[in-house]
Amino acid sequence: MSTSRRDFLSRTAMAAAGTVGVGAGETARVPGDRPVPYQPPKKPIIVTRETGDTTVAEAYAMLEGGADTLDAALHICQGREDDPKDHSVGLGGLPNEDGVVELDACVMHGPTRRAGSVAAVQNIRHAALLAKTVMQRTWHVMIVGKGAEQFAVDEGFHRENLLTDDARKIWLFWKEHGNGWWGPGLDSPDWKPPAIGSPTQGPMAMLMPRHPAPEYAQTIRDTMRRLSAMAERMGIRPELRREAALQVLWPTTGTIHVSALNTKGEMSGATTTSGLAWKIPGRVGDSPIIGAGCYTDQDIGSAGATGNGEENIKVAGAHTIVDQMRQGATPKEAGMEALRRIARNYNNDMAKLRYLDMIYYIVRRDGAYAGVSLWSTRGTGVRKNFVVHDGVLRTEPCDYLYEGTTLSIHPF
Ligand code: ASP
User: Fold this and answer.
1) pLDDT tens digit string along 243-256?
2) Is the dihedral of CA 331, 332, 336, 337 positive or negative?
């Protein structure tokens, strides 16, 4: 569905609910002496990241069969957590700088207005289910580290080593050839652009279709070739060599967020991740932070994020989005506002914003939805997208704040 049609439906639905968007970027209340009662969506809806598996369709069937929205969301999360080839969540997630996989996750259950979260938890694959267990079995909202692991075992979760052979090899490769840099951060006054590249000039520039720097493209190709040869010498299998090289140059982010809404108007959100590859042990991103990586308000809608967790925490992204919708913004407008707050934190300095990325996944209680990203394209020049299922499973391009390609944060 085109963006304009999404917006049209969104505004029509909000008009029916007594609120409407007026013109680009503006919203206003419709004065009405006879408010129209809320109409739940006619079909369930799921918004998430691409999964490459069958779990979104299965989760949709669960919703059609009357399953709880959080259970449906967790079904998708677990599909990714179980897949050793997905290096951004659960089993096979890329480890911290010590080679230990540490997972973050949170859930929010709209109908009961409850939340649960775990952070920096080791040896437990189903982090999102563990977050739900925190929600259901305790009066706590968040349990971290060793405590979370022990809690999981006490609750019957299986303890296992999550570092797969492939992930271990990529980690060893990074140890050998990466530089372990995590500071000063992009938000530090001491931050300097990478020595051998800048967003408009240098090796990274070739990644940006709008600012090609062909004279440096060769440098990138040579570097990739050199790293791939090193990966071969370290016994990394051929299919994995390119990925290993990319992980050294640009540490992975990934993550799964799922927001799900049923025809009763009930909704839930879940986010799960192994976080930033090669992070400092104990580093916690936005994914387990209620209000940043995920936020669901049964009266309004649900939102979640993938991308640079530090930036999302600073704008409380998911909560900001839901709150904007509370004030009448469409899902797209609400998402754009959260992205603008990230940009504002850097005084809209494009030389810095080039290193950041964020995608927000958003569903409003009436079924209107959006996927919005800070940048329009991935490194390969392919448009950033998100997945929707509302009876038809499809991938849609994200609306975006800036045209171009993120560089991801790394000093190269
Ligand atoms: N937001 C996650 C984190 O910062 C990573 C990601 O979504 O890519 O840990």
Assistant:
1) 777 777 666 667 99
2) negative
